[in-house]
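for the recovery benchmark. tokens below, seq after
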């Protein structure tokens, strides 16, 4: 996979998370996930199509999902993921992916995105793109308190 395809996801995620959470998460060790593809307890996926096709999956543990949803809802406590917090996480994925599409368009690479899909307890079977992809590049973004928001980029 071309690193030029991964960098906009890093930039887009850090920019949006910084704005919504008032903290820029640090870039962790970027790595390739081995097959079979595994996800965290909470994931939001967005299909990408246009100049290239693929999928991006935003992964996090439930505590990180509650933390981010709480930040998005102006600090309202989010002890568990309900319909409102799930919707907030889907909107986060939409905002990041839209930002990424804009970054690509600045490089004359035109892509579009499909609506985000929220999943809890997903398995590799929920992500058929991962089976067609030679590499799933994982970009972990770490908040100061230890919460991790991982961006898994799958571009065949």
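predicted aa per position
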């Amino acid at each position: 996979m071309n690193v030029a395809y991964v960098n906009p996801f890093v930039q887009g995620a850090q920019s949006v998370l910084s704005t919504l959470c008032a903290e820029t998460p640090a870039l962790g060790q970027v790595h390739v996930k081995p097959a079979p593809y595994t996800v965290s307890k909470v994931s939001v996926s967005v299909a990408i199509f246009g100049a290239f096709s693929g999928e991006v999956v935003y992964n996090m543990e439930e505590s990180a999902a509650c933390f981010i949803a709480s930040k998005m809802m102006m600090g309202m406590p989010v002890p568990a993921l309900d319909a409102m917090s799930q919707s907030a996480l889907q909107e986060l994925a939409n905002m990041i992916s839209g930002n990424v599409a804009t970054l690509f368009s600045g490089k004359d690479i035109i892509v579009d995105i499909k609506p985000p899909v929220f999943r809890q307890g997903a398995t590799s079977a929920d992500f058929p793109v991962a089976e067609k992809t030679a590499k799933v590049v994982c970009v972990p973004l770490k908040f100061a308190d230890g919460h991790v928001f991982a961006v898994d980029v799958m571009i065949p």
